[in-house]
């Protein structure tokens, strides 16, 4: 046991240590220990390790270990199986955690910007990341069609500069539409939503995505007003589509004037 657990103060931390414990203290063969490793690798598998209870506890008791101690070792292995890694994986993960913690503490705005531009990833949504950053003093500026790039950016050249959210965070907005926005904006600022739609060649769907994300606030005010502007900027052509007399649609939808219906 000391051979396997001395350097981690008696607690199994790595999968390799559990394999060593099984071989040294419970008499597992190398092949059996590898099967035990595979059971641990099945993350949060239901009952994956329970089949080894008798084998481990009985094997340790047979080799002179107290039964209570053997059961405590198995309890540690069972808990380890909930979230355990090989040593190489754990070491690389620990390094990433250490570096990430340093960046989050000393360059919070840069760290947030990098995470937002790496989406989708991990367990946290962009909204959760932004809320956490604001709680830790980072100034986060909303998406704005007049200034936002595709990626989120720092608004300055210092580590604690405000973070401007990027157009990539808008659900339903394609990257090519954002590219056209940036190109048109580089020529001259947008006068209004209609000017934006015309010069960036945006569809009604593009404008509605921007309005829903409040990215048109600087051109059209609040979300509701922006949605109305979006509808007006790109008329729905289907409403004016010509139809044949054989269509089972009302006559006024076929392009005939209301006067002819009287």
From TrEMBL:
One of its GO terms (molecular function) is DNA-directed DNA polymerase activity. Its EC number is 2.7.7.7. It comes from the Bacteria. Signal peptide: none annotated. Residues 137-225 form the DNA polymerase helix-hairpin-helix motif domain. Keywords: Nucleotidyltransferase, Transferase. Residues 2-63 form the DNA polymerase III alpha subunit finger domain. It holds the Pfam family HHH_6. GO terms for biological process: DNA replication. This is DNA polymerase III alpha subunit.
């Amino acid at each position: 046991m000391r051979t396997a657990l001395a350097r981690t103060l008696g607690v199994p931390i790595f999968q390799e240590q559990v394999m060593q414990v099984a071989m040294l203290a419970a008499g597992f063969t190398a092949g059996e220990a590898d099967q035990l490793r595979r059971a641990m690798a099945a993350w949060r598998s239901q009952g994956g390790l329970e089949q080894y209870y008798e084998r481990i506890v009985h094997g340790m008791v047979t080799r002179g270990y107290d039964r209570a101690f053997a059961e405590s070792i198995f309890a540690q292995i069972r808990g380890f199986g909930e979230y355990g890694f090989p040593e190489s994986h754990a070491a690389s993960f620990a390094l990433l955690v250490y570096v990430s913690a340093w960046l989050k503490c000393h360059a919070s705005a840069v760290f947030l910007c990098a995470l937002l531009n790496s989406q989708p990833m991990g367990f946290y949504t962009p909204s959760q990341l932004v809320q956490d950053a604001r709680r830790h003093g980072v100034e986060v500026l909303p998406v704005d069609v007049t200034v936002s790039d595709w990626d989120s950016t720092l608004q300055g050249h210092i580590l604690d500069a405000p973070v401007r959210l990027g157009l990539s965070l808008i659900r339903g907005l394609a990257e090519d539409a954002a590219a056209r926005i940036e190109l048109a904006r580089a020529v001259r600022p947008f006068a209004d939503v209609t000017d934006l739609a015309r010069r960036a060649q945006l569809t009604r769907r593009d404008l509605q995505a921007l309005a829903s994300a409040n990215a048109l606030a600087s051109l059209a005010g609040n979300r509701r007003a922006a949605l109305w502007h979006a509808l007006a900027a790109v008329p729905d052509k289907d409403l004016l589509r010509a139809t044949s007399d054989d269509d089972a649609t009302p006559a006024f939808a076929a392009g005939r004037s209301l006067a002819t219906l009287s």
